[in-house]
Design goal:
With 256 residues, the protein is an alpha/beta fold. Helix content is 35%, strand content 14%. It has 2 domains: 29 residues, no CATH class; 187 residues, Rossmann fold, CATH 3.40.50. It has a 4-stranded parallel β-sheet. Strands 3-4 form a two-stranded antiparallel ribbon. The structure holds zinc ion (ZN). The site of zinc ion (ZN) has 8 residues, from helix 2.
């Protein structure tokens, strides 16, 4: 078989920098994101209308966002992949998710987006981790949609406790105090904005961010995550996670 230059360079890369499955780190061919075993265990959200998978109310009120969707349930392989979301794996998981989610946005009629932003990560945490997973995913979405990524709209105050260590009511109170508009005078009038994050858990954070953008007169705000915790008891697979992911000490724990 005659090797093309591209294939040849891929082979060289395979030898020195083996491509790894984003969930289990097993070596896989360059064009693969998940190994076969992990891919077989991925749990994609069903093709039901998004409203059937997301809570009708957040903290007792109608959500501030107009649209929500995610690619996977936060379970098994996808959970491993998101927890393993670093460096090269972050880029391939973000690109893989963005390629598929852009099709969902199109079929749901939420693809006329003016700009993409992400749930902000505090600078100290970004320095500690070396990357911002929500931003990596948001940039991949912006590329798929061919619109700008703007990470300057929302700010985040330092929070002492991680979201996953809080109970539900604490999460809402904390999200309310943690996020803010970096420039309250800036108008987003007529803009359709997509906010990206890695996991939709209670929706407290994404709802708060959406409400801030609405305060700046954004016309429509959609929220998009790689994973959704299957905790609302309304999806086909309700109850799969076991335990109450809203409560302290329950398992599995999202990273925030
Ligand atoms: Zn794997």
């Amino acid at each position: 078989m005659k090797l093309t230059m591209k294939r040849f360079s891929e082979l060289i890369l395979d030898v020195f920098f083996p491509n790894q499955c984003v969930a289990c780190n097993k070596a896989v061919p360059m064009d693969m994101v998940f190994c076969e075993e992990c891919a077989a265990k991925l749990e994609y959200l069903p093709e039901t209308p998004w409203q059937a998978m997301f809570p009708p109310e957040i903290n007792g009120a109608h959500p501030s966002f107009d649209y929500a969707n995610a690619l996977f349930f936060y379970d098994g392989t996808a959970r491993e992949a998101v927890l393993n979301f670093k460096d090269k794996a972050a880029l391939s998981l973000a690109a893989y998710s963005a390629e598929r989610l852009v099709l969902k946005l199109e079929s749901d009629g939420f693809d006329r987006i003016d700009l993409v932003t992400s749930v902000p990560m505090h600078r100290s945490k970004r320095l500690e981790r070396g990357y911002d997973q929500a931003r990596v995913f948001a940039e991949a979405m912006a590329e798929q949609l061919n619109v700008p990524y703007d990470g300057t709209l929302l700010g985040r105050r330092r929070s002492r406790m991680a979201q996953h260590e809080r109970g539900m009511s604490e999460r809402f109170a904390s999200a309310d105090k943690t996020y803010f508009l970096t420039d309250p005078a800036r108008t987003l009038e007529g803009k359709r904005i997509l906010i990206c994050d890695d996991i939709f858990t209670t929706g407290a954070t994404l709802d708060k961010c959406a409400s801030l953008l609405k305060k700046s007169a954004a016309e429509k705000v959609g929220v998009l995550t790689i994973c959704l915790t299957d905790s609302f008891g309304r999806g086909e697979s309700a109850g799969r996670l076991g335990g109450d992911p809203f409560e302290k000490g329950s398992s599995p724990k999202p990273p925030h």
